[in-house]
Amino acid sequence: MRFRNINIRNIMNEALNNEGIIVDVREKEDFAKGHIPMAINLPLSDIEDGKFALPKNKVILVYCENGGGSMMAARVLSNNGYNVINAVGGINNYRGAMTRKK
User: What pLDDT does residue 101 have?
Assistant: First the structure.
């Protein structure tokens, strides 16, 4: 399958317009330091190992630190039949609100 790429700065609009699920594919520690609001954490290693359960009827928007990890996650997910949007640029280029775990 194929997936679509968008600029990370458009991730919130795309998620809202598509009723999608935002997935942060970084490790748990990085996710806790700060992530995009509404994002869930599903590390790339878990995706590569097949340790995930996401609804196939939803658009899945993936992002990471710089863009490489989300590209790999998008490939795996799309090959497993998911409708995926990859947010290019990673959280380092995101300029919106952030959520942090205390």
Answer: 73
DSSP state, residue 38: T
Local structure of 95: helix, strand or coil: coil
Q: Are 62 and 87 in contact (CB under 8 A)?
A: yes
Reading the block at residue 82, the tokens are 């998911």
- The domain total for the chain is 1
CATH number, domain of 58, equals 3.40.250.10
What does pTM read for this prediction? 0.95
Query: Is position 24 within any domain?
Result: yes
Q: Which tens digits make up the pLDDT trace of 31-72?
A: 999 999 999 999 999 999 999 999 999 999 999 999 999 999
Q: Which residues of 13-31 are buried (b: 16+ CB within 10 A; e: fewer)?
A: ebbeeeebbbbbbbbeebb
